[in-house]
User: Fold these one by one.
Assistant:
Number 1:
Amino acid sequence: MSKPMVRIHNVETDEIIDREMNDAEFAQYQADLKTKADETAQLDEAANAKAALLERLGITAEEAALLLG
Amino acid sequence: MAEGLGFIEFTTGDVLSAAAANGYLASQTVMVFASAAARTSAITTPYEGMMSYLKDTNSVEYYSGSAWVAVGGASGGMTLLSTTTLSGTSTNISVAGGYNYLKIFASGVTANAGGSEMVLRCNNTSSSSAYTGSAYVANASAFILSTTEYQLNAFGGSVDTETENAYEIDIFNYDQSTYVKAIRANGYYKQVYQGNTRRNTFNSGGGFYSTSAVTSVAFTLVGGNTFTAGQVKIYGVK
């Protein structure tokens, strides 16, 4: 399986290289994916908690914004 | 190439040696090249004070001792250092030293799909506590930025197929060995998030927490997608 591509622009020589990630870059890429997955899970959890609270209170998000505004 | 030797007044009958011709004449002219790459190829060891004209950018530059610097890039002047099209998961762009700060513009940035945040990594560094900062996103709230890279989208924000976006990033004292390179980033980006269209205005301030000079900046999509478009222009500002 090929690794994702990266671009390197050496401005001094104006050379542009498009190549597959090396092992270190790929390790960072995989760490980034995990970070993003964790972040998405947190956001989903927060969104679900918000929706549950609004339902319990019996109000819409717009009505909540009016109360907090 | 010989180092410039300053001034001499030749007298009638003088026979110039190659060293004298190189040092008093050739090295002290305004040398003309097609591009910076052509100049680098021709002059492998530049000396402080050399002058050159680049045809592709129509710029006159002098060698400061560590970098080629535009003449007239005096205090407040901006010199275009590079123009790069974003590609792949990450695009890493080298930067020249010799300026007070870098001003970076990115626009028309798109990815193959939504869901990946765009981040800036100085010297392609991504490690815990390497960055600091906070941001305010209009229609959202204030929040603390990630400490492993410099975020250019809010949490939950991302680059997607929308071209409607523009980012302006300043990196101060970037080529100094001082502790923190202050970063200021402002941006606007349109995205479709969970079926809703968002127009986000992003204002942030923070820094790259390193004593190393910044010699490259990488624009990276965190989340697995790839750039399909986007142009980055980097200016050196005196």
Note: Chain B has a mean pLDDT of 88.
Number 2:
Amino acid sequence: MNQPLFGLDGFLVVGAILFVLGLFTALMKRTAVMILMGIELMLNAVNLNFVAFSAFFPNVNLHGQIFSLFVITIAAAEAAIGLGIVLTLQRNRSTILVEDIDLLKQ
Amino acid sequence: MADSGFVAAFLLITLVTLGGAMGVILSTDVIRSAFFLSASFLGISGYYFLLHADFIGAVQVMVYAGAVTVLILFAVMLTVEHRDSIWHRGAFHWVVTSLTSLALLAVLVFSLGGVAAWPTQTGPAPNNSTALIGKALLGPYLVPFEVVSLVLLVAMVGVIVLARKEVGDK
């Protein structure tokens, strides 16, 4: 990295760490709601990357910010539907632990 | 851009964001994890304001720290499992997840070293990003804008259908 630490590279490293923390959450937790929280962390990390690139490049354009706006919108819709699925799961199977949802297993 | 005020703000916001993410992982209570997640969202919003993306920062607070947090809390309140501890996972699970996460982090961070020099911004950051985003959404980005409002409508109807009480429910 040839830039000062808190230039673009700092934001990208923080975004990478946040993404990996979100991935760790999504992989280690047993509840479907916690896995959705990990997915939201990953989406936020990606948004941070987009907005950081948009802020640091010479021709000041806002494509990164507009893309992250759409990501926020779609992520909110996906969170709503995901939590609706979790509620339906709770109602039909009385559990939200993903390890108990194994009807398709051999 | 790297004067001491910027650096201090960056470090503080990093503390809040990554601390919130660590809290989501390490907390054993799902409701506490939801609040830590909300803190992380507010930290990300701080980054956006630091990068002169004021509209996106405000949207982040409204949508994520506002609506998505409340949505998650509603779902947590309506479900039965409130404890979710990572400390009760088996050793194999821990090893594989940690190795995968560290490998991904290494790839992401060390790929930054391959870039000789990022281009740096030559002009001042715009302070009217709301107006520029508005013009872009009704200009070049009109079709995605309309499509995404359709997506939101479909999502709303879908969640209402999914989550409503069936006839025989208590």
Note: The radius of gyration of chain B is 21 Å.
